[in-house]
Amino acid sequence: MLARSPHAALRRLFDEVGTVDCVGVEERVAKYTTRSIKKASKLWGLKTAVSMVDLTTLEGKDTPGKVASLCRKALQPHDPALGVPQVAAVCVYPAMVKHARKALGRGTAVRIASVATAFPSGQAPLKTRLAEVKAAVADGADEIDMVINRGAFLAGEFGEMQDEIRAVVEACGRATLKVILEVSELETYDNIRAASFLAMRVIREGDFIKTSTGKTSLNATLGNNQVMIEAIRDYYLDTGISIAMKPAGGIRTAKQALQFLIAIKETLGDAWLTNTRYRFGASALLNDLIRQIEKEKTGAYQAPYYFSEATESY
Fold first, then answer.
1. For the chain, what is the domain count?
2. Which of 282, 193, 292, 284 is nearest to 235 (CA)?
3. 38 catalytic, yes or no?
4. Which of 4, 78, 81, 112 has a CA 20 to 30 Å removed from the CA of 175?
């Protein structure tokens, strides 16, 4: 019996979900960079972006003390007089979830996210990956960031990829799931769109699809973000199910964040301009957002060293 060609399987999937006009995408996202946002609208956008940040530390040298410090910054990113909101979540490895829960307590809106399923490679037995998810949730994680089986996708084994996501959904229980596509390893816009649809079909309303782990050479760009939010739009129009989005890695400046928010407003509308439907996996972004908020409020820039050191971007 001949093995099924992954190329033939991909072609069938492309016929089903549609392909991407690459030139059209690049032309559209180029226009986002020319938009000018002033005064009150800019301040609103900066504060909204702060409220969407997943403040992250993912280092082998992480300690309970470092996580506690991260949680304090999440709860109060800057001087309350400036009206800077809390961030959406702190994101840590599963072993650090219990320490984040202790630092945050139970009465805060700041959520605890944990990367799991053998992040960032995903190269562990499924049983091991599911056990990691269950342990993180038991320790207090509100959200789980998983990586898809990119090898299965590229081999055309779409059922295997989706079955693994379904198993993680079940292991999450009530925790929100963010499904990381790792766009750099999917290589093409067509593949990114197709993988987005495969993931969305097996996750729940309010779960996320996410660009990247932040551990590869290419992370979130306006282009791959656009491909994914157009997939979310098309899926919503077909099913009425709203899926959330998280670009991760490489978004380091307030200017970039505002461009991503423009993309969301013009593609998905105001309903997605909330941290329940859009996040930034880019902790290095937070200090620049605060710096720009202070500039809008006071008319003067503070030196970068005035702010606490940002943690790892992913």
1. 1
2. 193
3. no
4. 78
CATH number at residue 131: 3.20.20.70
Q: Quick one: tokens of 172? A: 């999450």
Whether residue 2 is predicted with pLDDT greater than 60 in this model: the reply is no
- pTM of the entire structure? 0.93
Annotated active-site residue in 73, 207, 246, 288: 246
Which tokens go with 109?
A: 């809106």
Q: Which of 47, 210, 215, 288 is catalytic?
A: 210
Residues 6 or more apart in contact with residue 48 via CB below 8 angstroms: 261, 273
Nearest to 33 by CA among 256, 293, 301: 256
Catalytic residue among 145, 190, 207, 288: 145
311 lies in some domain: no
Q: Which domain holds residue 217?
A: 15-306
Q: Which residues is 280 bridged to in the sheet?
A: 53
The phi, psi pair for 223, rounded to 5°, reads: -70, -55
Q: What is the largest CA-CA distance in the chain?
A: 72
**Phi, psi torsion values for 212, nearest 5 degrees:** -150, 165
Q: What pLDDT was estimated at residue 80?
A: 85
- Is residue 1 a part of any domain in this protein? no
Q: What distance in Å separates the CA atoms of residue 138 and residue 115, rounded to the nearest whole number?
A: 14
Neighbouring residues of 135: CB distance < 8 A, sequence distance ≥ 6: 94
- Using alpha carbons, select from 184, 265, 186, 179 the residue that is nearest to residue 229: 265
Domain membership flag for residue 203: yes
Q: Which residues contact 3 (CB under 8 A, 6 or more apart)?
A: none
234 catalytic, yes or no? no
pLDDT in tens, 17-27: 999 999 999 99
CA dihedral 143→206→265→35, nearest 10 degrees, is 20
Residue 312 maps to a domain: no
Q: Cβ–Cβ contacts within 10 Å for residue 281, how many?
A: 33
Q: What sign does the dihedral 214-219-224-226 (CA atoms) show?
A: positive
Which residue matches tokens 């949680």?
Answer: 71
Instruction: Give yes or no: 31 in active site.
Output: no
